[in-house]
């Protein structure tokens, strides 16, 4: 063994403490303190030292979170202090009963109030972590409450779990209990990757957390985005044991654990109801799933007096939210056609109350998804509605399949125009080939054309477009310019004044810009940014129309797929005649000067963050793009400058950490004026 030079030892300790602090800031406080690259460098230095002086490497080194050798099986462990379960309440009445039962037991007058701790009930896996002399020595699942499984190697890979307790003062023996869960972002990202690589995705974040913890190979667990939130303490040997649940949670926070941000100490039963309402509103916005609230009598002495029945404490209760997953029946599948002709299967369900609303439809995405689910019409299915996302079918309950269940047949002809439906090799979506001949696509194309970021035709909303197409007043966007007052006022619910207003807005919208016009055409994959790049690079519409795939590919950010779509669009004679008709009706824009001085920001990427007071964000973006800059949503080493208004947060921090030029709105305006 090599002797360790004193200065190396000192830098080792410093690196370790610095890395632990950054981990804590990132994973526990959700407030990154340094760029990832900086973290990686520190970690590299730490590992280099450990490589040379292996005796320095302690089990709580931040380098030890990558997982180790795979196990053959998990061993069983006994919980010294049983891990109790929670009674459930599903209504306000049950909550009132709960509060009354407690008061009766401790002879509290019904007019007196109890102090409760309120916390979101995370939907994950309950675990126990044991710290001896401040070091994490064992992690276990709850199991049946008495016997669980030893998952120490797996919990060690979870970055929000401290490998050793923070600070110098901690109990000799501490057992922390909490919930390991997978945040929604991480879950979605994981599932997306699983689908891309042909692996089986997880049904929900809770299964994902459970499945990830059940890995015998902790190297796999290490790759899963798991977190842990502490919610109670089992064994405790040491001085200064806090005297209430709330004080204990605060202490756990000081020792380095993640504590839920929304915990609250309140007084009286009304406050519990209020908290429930608040959290119910917040539920969709949280970045993790919760299935209810846990209320706990705050005072430890009272908890002790109340004790437990069967396996649940009398002093705590879980008030459940409406479930986010329910079983129902798949009645039928319909196929909808979108703007780009994408044919999407939509499940018609027996209406079911899930995630707080009654759901009658769910998306089935595409043919691959139908195959993956192996679902038939008539099947019992599990529907999930979490957050604001469209309800999904996550599983077919094959065991309950009735006789005569029908397989779902993807249509070969478009349900709207009867043109054939084709699926391009390698693409998930099937599309109607009818183009603008297809009524569904016409409507969606016109809605897009009229939308705010496109031609911005005020007063031409979705309903009106439907009515115009359904009443044969228009067949394409070009027909908008032929609309006559006499015909319009014949439409149901169209007053003279609204009709005049509409015609006026159509007239006003004729003054536009080349990028907006290109975007309006609804060419597949051509979003605002691509339209701007095309305009900047080609300068005129005719040059874009004439561009070959090769010429398009030379443009920054235009890949082979977009290039193909652009060429296909302008090769289609129907599209060309529509564009021609629009131009003849007086729609116009200024061509873009190709000379370098008109695009002084070419090649630069800018980021806007915080509130802009004088200009709107959209306006600032337009101006920057007109000068050739790209405007991106996130800061990276490639960012040229960041414009930060009041309220700027993580993007500003990142820009500062990366030493990127930062402008106020005022200085941006001055800068643009001088260009
Ligand atoms: O967030 C949770 N899932 C949660 C679970 C929580 N916030 N608090 C909890 N408190 C308890 C007691 C009161 C027994 C200490 C719990 C659970 N138990 C629990 N989780 C799984 C079974 C019981």
Q: What would you say about this model in short?
A:
The protein is an alpha+beta fold and 675 residues long.
Identify the notable features of this structure and list them briefly:
675 residues; alpha+beta; Helix Hairpins; D-amino Acid Aminotransferase, Chain A, domain 1; OB fold (Dihydrolipoamide Acetyltransferase, E2P); seven-stranded antiparallel sheet; five-stranded mixed sheet; 26 strands; globular; binds ligand D41
Topology:
Layout: H1 6-28, H2 36-52, E1 76-78, E2 88-89, H3 92-105, E3 115-122, E4 125-132, E5 135-141, E6 147-149, H4 152-155, E7 173-181, H5 184-196, H6 205-213, H7 218-222, E8 227-237, H8 245-254, E9 264-267, H9 269-282, E10 290-297, H10 300-306, E11 308-309, E12 312-313, E13 316-320, E14 325-337, E15 342-354, E16 357-363, H11 367-373, E17 376-377, E18 380-384, E19 392-396, E20 406-407, E21 421-423, E22 430-432, H12 439-450, H13 462-470, H14 485-488, H15 496-508, H16 514-520, H17 528-538, H18 541-546, H19 549-553, H20 560-571, H21 573-584, E23 605-609, H22 617-626, E24 630-632, E25 641-644, H23 650-657, E26 661-663, H24 665-673
Helix pairs in contact: 1-2, 12-13, 16-17
The site of ligand D41 has 15 residues, from strand 3, strand 8 and strand 10.
